[in-house]
């Protein structure tokens, strides 16, 4: 176990409300994909609502933005879940359910092991990435940094 974990935030704006027929494929995938994440090697924590379900009811800006916030033991464990598991199939369909945004929708950053980032902290990291680009404080898979702040 390391003394740092990787936090990730991704956000999206649905094309249609969650209860619309056009969103049914996304909604149907929530429970199985969250269960897959929970059981994935390297998974540490994910944001859930007060019932321990998904986080689709959490709207930090008071709007329709959906947030996904989680913590992983390493960059590799998050990568393997996101791109080498059944999660990838959901990603392939994201344009059916979510609007394409011109600005970055995901940010990664290192947190001390045991730290649970708040939604506000996560949105601050995304804002930093949008403002300054990838750096040790907020980065992407394409331009990643290690916990010491060195480019990978």
Radius of gyration: 15 Å
In quaternary terms, these chains amount to single chain
Profile the largest sheet.
4 strands, antiparallel
Molecular shape: globular
Description:
The protein is of the alpha+beta class. It has 5 helices and 4 strands. The protein has a 4-stranded antiparallel sheet with strand order 2-3-1-4, with helices on both faces. It is globular and about 45 Å long. The mean pLDDT is 94.
Short key terms for the protein model shown above:
152 residues; alpha+beta; four-stranded antiparallel β-sheet; 4 strands; globular
In short:
With 152 residues, the chain is of the alpha+beta class.
SSE arrangement:
Elements: E1 4-13, H1 24-39, E2 43-46, E3 65-72, H2 75-83, H3 87-92, H4 94-97, E4 106-112, H5 119-132
């Amino acid at each position: 176990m390391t003394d740092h974990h990787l936090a990730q935030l991704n956000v999206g704006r649905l094309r249609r409300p969650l209860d619309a027929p056009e969103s049914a494929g996304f909604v149907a995938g929530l429970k199985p994909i969250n269960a897959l994440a929970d059981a994935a090697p390297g998974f540490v924590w994910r944001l859930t609502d007060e019932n321990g379900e998904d986080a689709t009811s959490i709207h930090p800006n008071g709007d329709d933005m959906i947030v996904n916030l989680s913590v992983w033991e390493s960059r590799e464990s998050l990568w393997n879940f996101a791109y080498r598991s059944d999660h990838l199939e959901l990603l392939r369909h994201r344009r059916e359910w979510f609007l394409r945004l011109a600005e970055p929708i995901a940010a990664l950053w290192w947190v001390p092991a045991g730290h649970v980032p708040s939604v506000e902290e996560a949105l601050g990291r995304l804002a930093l990435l949008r403002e300054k680009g990838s750096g040790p404080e907020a980065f992407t898979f394409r331009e990643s940094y290690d916990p010491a702040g060195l480019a990978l």
